[in-house]
Amino acid sequence: MCARRVAWLFAVLKEGAEKAMTVKLTHLHSDEDLAHALEHLAGSDPGMRDALAQCGVPPLRRRAPGFAGLAAIVTGQQLSTHAARSIWARLEDALGVVSAQAVGASDDAELAACGLSRPKIRTLRAIVEAVENGTLDFARLEGAQDEGVHAELTAIKGIGPWTADIFLLFCLGRADAWPAGDLALMEAIRLLRGHDERPRGEDCVGFADCWRPYRGAAAHLLWAYYAVAKGRSGVPDAAGR
Q1: Burial label, 53 (beta-carbon count in 10 A; 0-12, 13-18, 19+)
Q2: Domain 67-171, what fold?
Q3: In terms of DSSP H, where are the helices of the chain?
Q4: What is the pLDDT along the chain (241 residues), one digit of tens a residue?
Q5: Do the Cβ atoms of 237 and 77 come closer than 8 Å?
Q6: What span, in angstroms and rounded, lies between the C-alpha atoms of 177 and 197?
Q7: Closest CA to 189 of 160, 162, 229, 150
């Protein structure tokens, strides 16, 4: 890290240590919020402290908390960041604004031509239907508890727990969102803890209990830690690897 970034990091962490004594964040709205949450974790977990010293505070990733944000997550599932961005760019070129109305008015051939697989097209159709019949209300999700958001999203065919968790973290900025089934997080935990085997998704829930109420911040740092370990850079986009 450059000297200016290091100076900023220490200043923010000092402020964060003081803030963590009195304030419990429920959302991560800024890099400063992320730094405060990570300082809290570093103060109680030596592994988090070592990862933070090695990686610094990663940039906070956010997406719009609406249809476009959820559609971007679905689009990028199981794809590299580069491939996800390419497909999303083609969708924007074809549809203009990626909205429920635009997707609903498009035929399957047009969406497939942008690079979407048939299962992803079906999932987007299911999201559009849920928006149109009122069972999915993005404005309502912004004020709902994490469990309620998770339940409402996973009730839609094609949306699983990982997609719901990533939406909570990247689109709604929930500080305690934890995408337990994320392969990069599993590998990061293995590396951080020095285990021989990668933990399974259900085990990751237990591993992350000690990072409450900032599991979302822990996820950001673990993605950065994984990237450093693998010789990559940055934190993944909302659906990237």
Answers
A1: exposed
A2: Endonuclease III; domain 1 (1.10.340)
A3: 3-20, 31-44, 46-55, 67-76, 81-95, 100-105, 108-113, 118-133, 138-143, 146-154, 161-166, 183-193, 201-208, 215-229
A4: 555 655 555 565 556 555 544 579 999 999 999 999 999 999 999 999 999 999 999 999 999 889 999 999 999 999 988 999 999 999 999 999 999 999 999 999 999 999 999 999 999 999 999 999 999 999 999 999 999 999 999 999 999 999 999 999 999 999 999 999 899 999 999 999 998 888 876 788 888 999 999 999 999 999 999 999 988 654 554 444 3
A5: no
A6: 24
A7: 229
Q: How far apart are CA 235 and CA 225, in angstroms?
A: 9
The answer, yes or no, to whether the previous bond of 213 is cis (omega within 30 of 0) is: yes
CATH 1.10.1670.40 fits 3-61+177-229, yes or no: yes
Name the token pair of 71. 């559609």
Domain parsing of the chain, residue ranges: 3-61+177-229, 67-171
Answer whether 225's CB lies under 8 Å from 54's CB.
yes
- For residues 181 and 230, give the distance between their C-alpha atoms in angstroms, rounded to a whole number: 19
- Are 71 and 127 in contact, with CB atoms under 8 Å apart? yes
Over the Cα atoms of the chain, what is R_g?
18
